[in-house]
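Your task:
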Amino acid sequence: SLSVADYRWDVPQSPFTVAPMRGSIEPDKAITVELVYNPTSHSSDEVTLTLNVTGSAPKSLRLRGYVGTPKVALSKKNVNFGLIPIGIAKVQQFKAKNSGEDNAIFYISDVHNHDLQISPMYGRIGVGDSQTFTVSYKSMHPQAFEIPITMNIAGTNPIAFSITGQSELPRVQMLNNDLEFGRVYLGSSATLPISIANVGAVPAILFLDLTNHSEFRIEYSSELADHTASEKDNSISLVTDQIFVTKSMTNLISPAQ
């Protein structure tokens, strides 16, 4: 053609989109049109598009998308964290298995919860394969939580599951009254024992900042300095992160100890 061709796509409501929807094509030129298919819960989708060109008869373009019939099952419908401490990220896992005859393309709807992280949020599960999901929850307030989650899967109905648990403030008691050192002479030192008990149901992290009290220090068993200790074991370690304190000792106390 020796003239500019003005065009416009008519696209019915469907999982298919076209870009650009309208425009002009110079004589003896071509443009690239992008067709996008966003699968639904149906195994296949079809639609007929109409291309309208000024001064020419409309043309039709039939689109068909097929995602098959995957069959996905979760290892658990409720990821229960139970009772967890505040400010400490807790992690759990679950699996999704595809026992269908086609690959499962999935994505997890945004949960809009800053305390919760799920990985991966989208992906593909091959035929006969399983995908492990990691759920991390870090609560900053005492609360009971029940968060509904939706996993959308192309070609089949969405799967709903939930994240539940309860976060609780630790309860710690110091078993000593005021520490009375009595008379201490210049150049000498005195030692008094301190006992701290976690009377709650969750681990507690304590910060002791002696930056402005250089005349004091704490002494403890070398067993407490084991950096490989889990949250079920008492431990003491030096903290140098300026976010927390200038120079302090951290004491992780397990419940009922």
